[in-house]
């Protein structure tokens, strides 16, 4: 006992320290859309996509992952299957697994789009 | 053929019509924290939690789902395991599967917290 006694509390180590990320991270590149990862696990990813006017994420499909696009800044046109919508700040759409989807910034300003996918489309 | 001919395009029905939701939805209730669902599938849910000052989501654990809390409005104290942080607008934290987590609005204003869990913690 004495110095060797370690309480339950003192021994406790959290599995992962709390870490804050910010939705207002941005990085733009004239060459192509930028993807900034905030968090990812095997179960999901949360990214901020940064698109200069004219930049796009080409149509593609995830067989087994659902995706959400939420515009944070600017405007972006989202295509999901045969449907299309232009989203402004604070608007969110779902691209369900198995449905082709795409994202495009027709300008005139930059666009930042919060993107979630579950499960992660490219797990490590 | 003739009238019975249906082109591939005309036959196409998207699996789900595009539907916009908004991050600025709010509903507060003096009785308890409100959960407003934006989207949910078997793979995830995306909710906005609305907390009056003093309201909280009690400590709980999801064995197999990761959760994200992103403060949209006001401030909220998030506890994850033994760690604790107060988040302001645009700040995000991860509560990994298996780790106890909780949320509390210490005021003085209302708080709105975007909450994402994958997989869905209570699939239909």
Structure description:
The structure is a homodimer of 124-residue chains. With 124 residues, the first copy, chain A, is mostly beta strands. Chain A has a domain at 35-118: Jelly Rolls, CATH 2.60.120. In chain A, 3% of the residues lie in helices and 45% in strands. Chain A is built from 1 helix and 10 strands; from the N terminus they run αββββββββββ. The first copy, chain A, has one helix spanning 8-11, and strands at 21-22, 34-40, 45-51, 56-60, 66-73, 76-80, 83-87, 91-95, 101-104, 111-118. In chain A, the strands form 2 sheets. Chain A has a 5-stranded antiparallel β-sheet, with no helix packed on it. In chain A, strands 4-9-6-7 form a 4-stranded antiparallel β-sheet, with no helix packed on it. The N and C termini of chain A lie far apart (44 Å). In chain A, 35% of the residues are buried. At the A-B interface, strand 1, strand 5, strand 7 and strand 8 of A face strand 1, strand 5, strand 7 and strand 8 of B. Strand 1 (21-22) of chain A pairs antiparallel with strand 8 of chain B.
Task: Compute the average pLDDT of chain A.
Answer: 90
| Form type of chain A | globular
The Cα radius of gyration of chain A reads 19 Å
Structural class by sheet pairing and helices of chain A: mainly beta
Quaternary structure type: homodimer
Q: Helix count of chain A, per DSSP?
A: 1
What labels would you give this structure?
homodimer; 124 residues; 5-stranded antiparallel β-sheet; 45% strand
What's the structural blueprint in terms of helices and strands?
The structure is a homodimer of 124-residue chains.
Chain A: H1 8-11, E1 21-22, E2 34-40, E3 45-51, E4 56-60, E5 66-73, E6 76-80, E7 83-87, E8 91-95, E9 101-104, E10 111-118
Antiparallel strand pairs in A: 2-3, 3-10, 4-9, 5-8, 5-10, 6-7, 6-9
């Amino acid at each position: 006992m004495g110095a060797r006694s370690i309480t339950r509390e003192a021994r406790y180590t959290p599995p992962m320290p709390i870490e804050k990320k910010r939705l207002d991270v941005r990085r733009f590149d004239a060459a192509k859309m930028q993807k900034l990862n905030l968090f990812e696990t095997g179960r999901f990813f949360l990214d901020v996509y940064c698109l200069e006017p004219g930049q796009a994420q080409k149509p593609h499909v995830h067989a087994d992952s659902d995706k959400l696009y939420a515009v944070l800044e600017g405007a972006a046109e989202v295509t999901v299957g045969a449907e299309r919508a232009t989203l402004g700040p604070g608007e969110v759409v779902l691209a369900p697994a198995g449905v082709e989807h795409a994202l495009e910034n027709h300008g005139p300003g930059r666009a930042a789009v919060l993107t979630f996918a579950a499960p992660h489309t490219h797990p490590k």
